[in-house]
Design goal:
heterodimer; A: about 230 residues; alpha/beta; 10 strands; globular; B: about 260 residues; about 35% helix
Chain lengths: ~230, ~260
């Protein structure tokens, strides 16, 4: 079996809503997930079961209540759950990529620069980063005339593809995808499936949330089922 | 990734009469990092910025700055001339109101060039060339170099202030609501400009803002202040998307969605 890129141990996460009288909502408990290089695991389970919460926790976007998230960063297993902010930034920079459902960027920045940013941050020249970003946007069927425009004016599907290009350009060894094909037509779905499978072939480990069964069958090596927690009385 | 901080503060406290403006505040800032300080009006954000930058002495606590050769300086124990030199060279301060930092009866080019002259640069041609270069970098037309700042719009004044600050290549910037007084269309452009320049020049910055949207787009880390205390601190997206403290939850949930 190939190298373990990410594994969780007894991961738990809940929310305390202080503005609602301190009500406590447990979402995840006892999560033990192991992800290997070149593998795609799709989180499954009904809506509201905590798939996005798990994905966001794995990215360090949500703080976990207990448990560990070990991620292979430059060949060393690091606990993301207990890492200080600067370490999380470094892990995201080089190792851990995330494609959210919605694009959130500085207004008025052209789509091309939104995508190229990751590479420029790693020290690529602007020309080189833009060249790769252009190729990726074209592959996702974003026509050249849109590359110089800020994505705020784009359609939902176009914004999602810009977001995907931004997520894939860094070729992170671990990639988290939240509904990567939700608002895409068949042609673009096929392009995304091909990109995911190429990333796997390169050795990237992928965790995805994906309700579209055709896409799921095309990318998943296995499913990781989540079951609802009984709300604490 | 160096483990040495650029700026560190421990146990900063300061009261204005009976009002605690800072209560036992710790800060660490690493090179190239952007730290946002958020909180409502009167929470102590600007006071913290003034104490960190040596402009206001604390009642208790200390601030250390590490200079380019690695020596630590106790900011509030420095002789005044040394602190002034620091403010003119390694540090930059961007005020909410650019008029506080600009000389309104000196040309735009003069405002930028002045910081260089204060550092001992004397060649007029070089100073003018650098001033024009910086005006262009902040997207002010080169042919406005001889115009007075009073003929500039609010957004242009803010960009001029940033050019004036960046011309000496500071390692550390203190920014007090840099986009606060601008209309939103200019705000977005300035945000992008600040982000690009800070990343490209690897500048560290402490950014005070009441706008958590600005903090989200610019800052790596965030500190949430309430009544002089830091109630929550961490990675920006973590604090804003999964706030733990009641006050942070209130702050995040109170933002209007455009």
């Amino acid at each position: 079996m190939s190298q373990v890129m990410l594994c969780t141990d007894q991961l738990a996460k809940g929310f305390t809503l202080h503005l609602q009288g301190g009500v406590r909502i447990p979402v995840l408990s006892g999560i033990g997930l192991e992800l290997h290089a070149g593998e795609c695991v799709v989180l499954s389970g009904p809506s509201g079961v905590g798939k996005s919460t798990l994905l966001r926790s794995l990215f360090g976007n949500y703080r976990t209540d207990s448990g560990r998230i070990m991620i292979c960063h430059h060949g060393v297993m690091v606990d993301l759950a207990g890492a200080d902010p600067r370490t999380v930034v470094a892990i995201r920079h080089d190792t851990l990529g995330y494609v959210s459902q919605f694009l959130r960027v500085v207004p008025r920045v052209p789509a091309l620069d939104v995508v190229a940013e990751v590479l420029i941050g790693r020290g690529s020249s602007q020309d080189e980063a833009r060249r790769i970003a252009t190729a990726l946007l074209l592959r996702l069927n974003i026509p050249r005339r849109l590359h110089g425009l800020p994505p705020a004016t784009f359609s939902g599907g176009e914004q999602q593809r810009v977001n995907l290009a931004r997520g894939f350009i860094g070729r992170h060894p671990v990639l988290l995808l939240d509904e990567p094909t939700a608002s895409l037509d068949a042609e673009n779905r096929a392009a995304v499936v091909a990109m995911i499978n190429e990333a796997k072939a390169r050795g990237s480990a992928i965790i995805a949330i994906c309700h579209d069964t055709d896409v799921r069958d095309a990318i998943a090596d296995r499913l990781f089922p989540l079951t609802p927690l009984q709300a604490a009385a | 990734m160096s483990d040495d901080t650029l700026l560190s503060a421990r146990g900063l406290s300061l009261s204005f009469g009976a009002i605690p403006a800072l209560v036992a505040v710790d800060v660490d800032l690493w090179p190239g990092e952007m730290l946002a300080v958020v909180g409502e009006s009167g929470s102590g954000k600007t006071t913290l910025l003034n104490v960190l930058s040596g402009r206001l002495p604390p009642d208790a606590g200390a601030v250390w700055y590490r200079d380019p050769v690695g020596r630590l300086h106790d900011v509030h124990a420095m002789p005044a001339p040394a602190l002034r030199t620091l403010h003119r060279s390694d540090w930059g301060f961007v005020h909410q109101d650019p008029r506080q930092n600009l000389r309104m009866n000196v040309t735009a080019g003069g405002n930028v060039g002045e910081r260089l002259m204060a550092q001992g640069v004397r060649h007029y041609g070089n100073i003018r060339a650098q001033a024009i270069d910086w005006l262009t970098q902040v997207e002010i037309d080169a042919d406005r170099v001889d115009d007075m700042p009073r003929t500039f719009s609010g957004g242009m004044l803010q960009r001029l202030q940033i050019a004036r600050t960046l011309v000496t290549h500071p390692r550390l910037m203190f920014m007090d609501e840099p986009t606060g007084s601008l209309d939103v269309s200019v705000q977005a452009r300035l945000l992008d400009l600040i982000r690009t320049l800070v990343t490209r020049l690897n500048i560290a910055a402490v950014l005070v803002t009441h706008d958590i949207g600005v903090a989200r787009l610019l800052a790596h880390r965030i500190m949430v202040m309430q009544r002089g205390r830091v109630v929550e601190t961490g990675l920006t997206d973590q604090v804003l998307d999964d706030p733990q403290h009641p006050y942070t939850q209130l702050l995040v949930s109170s933002v209007l969605q455009a």
